[in-house]
Amino acid sequence: MTTTRLTRHCFTLLMALGLGTPLLANAESLRFGGNFPDDHSSSKAMKIFEEELDSRTNGELTAQLFPGMQLGGASENVDQVRSGVIMGTWVGIAYLSRIVPELEALSLPFAFDSREKAFKVVDGKVGEMLDEKLAEKGFIALGYMELGFRNVTNNERPIETPEDFKGLKIRLQPNQTHLDSFRALGANPVSMDIKEVYGALQQGVLDGQENPYSVIATRRMDEVQKYLSDTGHFYDFIVVAANRDAFNNLTAEQQKAMKESMAKAVEWQRKKAAEEDEAARETLIERGMEFTPISSETRAELRKETQGVVENLKGKIGSDVVDNVLAELDS
Question: Is-contact 210 233, C-beta < 8 A?
Fold first, then answer.
């Protein structure tokens, strides 16, 4: 679809939903679109943001939430925010990395061994550096939620050794570091929007996919996938990104209310996501998936085989952000 046709398509969709008015024509109503289902912790957290914002501004600002791809897929939501059609989106950072490639520094393969370390990275100097890069491209980062450790599912074989990745046609997010990492392991990665994945797995177009347990469960990937492994190859974040100019057009008090409301939502979501992670894995096993854990020895081999991806990323985006991520992980 050409850019012109895509823009026309998005405009038609928004008009059909009654969203065709300019973003700040009615400043108290702020629209947020997301691709996660209603029952995902991030969508529930956005409800907390909605309630907090209403309370903190005495109804002066309200958030209209459109989860579950009501306004299109993840890539479309990002474009809608950037163009100012909607105020914001909550989305996996991979969908912003095509615009802000420095975000790929958070996608180093097999680098994170705990969510605590991941939060330490994104809540510190690295997060500040990335916020600046996002602002340069027209976004404001309101907060980073947990998407979680990403794990491989497939219909061909259990994943136990590096050799088991070879030849598998696996869907990944549109993140070059993700794709390069799986190529280094001998897989055949395919970049695809999440809205197309279930059908592609069902039709056998793909052998597998990778996602956090919670996403695999809420999107019912177990219905079209047999094998599940705890590869944990990337730790992934959900960024709540808003249109920079629209945010800056709010009053200082309104901006403060938005940030404080989002901080409350992010705090809740991170705790909830951690609770749901293992529960989601058990749910997938109960639904019939065959689970195979990855040994520490295999994980070390996988890290070694993908080390070249880290060096290539430094050459692509500069070593500054990557080196700061590595420094945080070593501290």
Answer: yes
Q: In this structure, are residues 273 and 145 in contact, taking their beta carbons and an 8 Å threshold?
A: yes
Question: What are residue 140's phi and psi, to 5 degrees?
Answer: -120, 125
> If 0-12 CB within 10 Å is exposed, 13-18 middle and 19+ buried, where does residue 30 land?
buried
DSSP 195: G
How far apart are alpha carbons 62 and 174 in whole angstroms?
32
End-to-end CA distance of the chain: give it in Å, rounded: 47
Element (H, E) at 237: strand 235-243
Q: DSSP character for 295?
A: P
What's this model's pTM, rounded to 2 decimal places?
A: 0.82
Decide: helix, strand or coil at residue 64: strand
In whole angstroms, give the CA distance from residue 62 to residue 329: 38
Per-residue model confidence as pLDDT tens digits over 102-143: 999 999 999 998 999 999 999 999 999 999 999 999 999 999
